[in-house]
Amino acid sequence: MKNPELTPPYARYLVHLIRPFPNFDAFFIKSVREKAVQLLRLKPGDRVLDVGCGPGGSFPYLVSAVGPTGEVIGVEISPDIAINARRRIETNRWRNVRVIEADARTVKLEGKFDALLSFAAADIYASPQALDNLFPYLKDDARVVAFGAKLTRRAFGGLLNPTLRALWKLSFASTPKVNYEPWAPLRERLDHLQTGEYFFGCMFLAWGASPVVSQILGHTPESRQINDSGGADCVSRVPEHDCD
Ligand SMILES: C[S@@+](CC[C@H](N)C(=O)[O-])C[C@H]1O[C@@H](n2cnc3c(N)ncnc32)[C@H](O)[C@@H]1O
């Protein structure tokens, strides 16, 4: 085992358990992964970042969206988990997918990207330091999508919220705490952030586009012509909107 301190406590055993199955992904998460990648609106040839990529569960959807001329770059802090991601890449013989073993808060990347995915990675979507480090690598109008856990105001909140808070104790000590609007750091950095809720309001998808510099300099954001529904069946700027 490489430095275990770089692997979140919840994954320290799991990573070895699933290593013999490089294409493993939890069945219940597949449809929301698919939706997250759809919201990135990738085109063939695009370059996409998957930060906090874990064992690469989103890679198949990203690879299929960018095609053989595109590129998928995963960033993963845990050397142990990165081994699993690389096994997935080797097993599928993807030549245009790479995993960079680094901390999203300090990683240095090459070139600019058309899109950023942060799937189930609160250390990225809820971390101002990680976002400040990553956003300069995004092209103007790059699409950004986050999926993760949130506290719920629904009826089961009294049960679900303490469970989520307890599970959070298995993350890094530095992981931003779960709250009702974990997308807040993204909202400060994106134009037109939209959100949807899943799984009784304790999961969310958030999506938007990075600002266009020429518009910051000379035009108002309202002048942009964007149909931003992304084809999702739930579109809301109100956090408590129901997508279940
Ligand atoms: C819950 S897992 C999700 C993995 C993957 N995105 C998925 O959908 O299966 C979160 C991942 O983020 C990684 N991570 C946590 N903090 C990070 C950081 N600062 N930089 C890069 N990766 C990080 C963890 O090691 C873990 O693999």
Q: Can you walk through the features of this model?
A:
The protein has 244 residues and is an alpha/beta fold. It has a single domain, classed as 3-Layer(aba) Sandwich (Rossmann fold). The chain has nine helices and seven strands, in the order H-H-E-H-E-H-E-E-H-H-E-H-H-E-E-H. The protein has helices spanning 14-18, 30-39, 59-66, 79-92, 122-125, 128-134, 157-168, 184-187, 213-218; strands at residues 47-51, 71-76, 97-101, 113-119, 138-149, 191-198, 203-209. Strand 1, helix 3 (59-66) and strand 2 (71-76) form a beta-alpha-beta unit. The longest helix has 14 residues, at 79-92. Residues 219-242 have low confidence and may be disordered. The structure holds S-adenosylmethionine. Residues 8, 52-54, 57-58, 75-78, 81, 103-105, 119-121, 123, 130 line the site of S-adenosylmethionine (SAM).
What does the main sheet amount to?
Answer: 7 strands, mixed
Give helix and strand order, one letter per element, not per position: HHEHEHEEHHEHHEEH
Uncertain segments of ≥5 residues (pLDDT<50)?
Answer: 219-242
- Count of strand segments: 7
**The CATH fourth-level homologous superfamily:** Vaccinia Virus protein VP39
| Beta-strand percentage range | 15-25%
